[in-house]
Design brief:
182 residues, 3-stranded antiparallel sheet, 31% strand, globular, binds 1-O-pyrophosphono-5-O-phosphono-alpha-D-ribofuranose
Length: 182
């Protein structure tokens, strides 16, 4: 059987680079939230690795919560909305909340999700994305904390998938075109 690595064109971000960036992002967050309790919302499934590493790197107390959403895209009448497949188990009213995402792409998911979360009256609501692909943006969304700005390439690993595979790779790599252009 072919190894997952064989379908990776090249490594875009090595595991050491990711680890260093996560520490830098945690330090940036520490300055803002020092001493405050913050609800970290992990958007399943791609953010799991980043979420776990980031939560362990910050110094303030973190409450874990999870959401699973699917975007309807921009072609819908509403101009993009999300279906919540799994909702938070915490009431975020009056809480500091940070949504943790692996990648900000078109912005459809986060644009719609933020409207819904804002309506629950958190004390503050910020977005933290490991990867940002600004070239692909169709909605006015920007993250408060960004790890890496990357080109419009098909990336996998460190949580990111193609057809539910490759999430387990410890680095972020560019997938070979032949894999998804079959
Ligand atoms: C990814 C990512 C965001 C969304 C971003 O999730 O985690 O939620 O896509 O894309 P957008 O900016 O174009 O809306 P995905 O739907 O791939 O699910 P997964 O995390 O379970 O892999």
């Amino acid at each position: 059987m072919k190894r997952l690595e064989d379908n990776v064109e090249r490594v875009l971000l090595a595991k050491e680079e990711i680890a260093q960036k996560v520490n830098e992002m945690a330090a940036e967050m520490d300055k803002i939230y020092q001493g405050e309790e913050v609800v970290f919302v992990c958007i399943l499934k791609g953010s799991v690795a980043f979420f776990g590493d980031l939560a362990r790197a910050v110094s303030f107390p973190v409450v874990y919560d999870f959401m699973c959403v699917s975007s309807y895209g921009s072609g819908t009448v509403s101009g993009g909305s999300v279906r919540i497949n799994k909702d938070l188990s915490t009431d975020i009213a009056g809480k500091h909340v940070v949504v943790i995402e692996d990648i900000l792409d078109t912005g459809n998911t986060l644009h719609a999700l933020f409207r819904q979360l804002q309506a629950r009256n958190p004390k503050s609501l910020r977005l933290c994305c490991l990867l940002d692909k600004p070239e692909r943006r169709t909605k006015p969304v920007s993250a408060d904390f960004v790890g890496f700005t990357i080109p419009d390439e098909f990336v996998v690993g460190y949580g990111l998938d193609y057809d539910e595979k490759y999430r387990q790779l410890p680095y972020i790599g560019i997938l070979k075109r032949c894999v998804y252009e079959k």
